[in-house]
Specification:
Elements (H helix, E strand, L loop, with lengths): L13 H4 L4 H14 L4 H8 L2 H14 L2
Helix pairs in contact: 2-4
């Protein structure tokens, strides 16, 4: 029996990450957006999605999922 837990690799395909809770996915997306060194043009585009991610985060927190 393999003693290591079944934890998906960080670069695992989406099917292996599907079991993560929705609020965790949103939290990881927000952290990635804040810490990635975006080019100026890309940053303007990404900033358009931040309000949606924050709304999703609030929605999930309110539901308790």
């Amino acid at each position: 029996m393999d003693p290591s837990p079944l934890v998906p690799h960080p670069l695992a395909p989406g099917s292996q990450r599907a079991c993560y809770l929705p609020w965790l996915k949103v939290s990881v997306a927000l952290r990635y957006i804040r810490t990635f060194p975006w080019a100026p043009q890309a940053r303007r585009e990404v900033r358009q999605h931040v309000p949606w991610l924050l709304a999703q985060s609030s929605r999930y927190r309110g539901v308790g999922a």
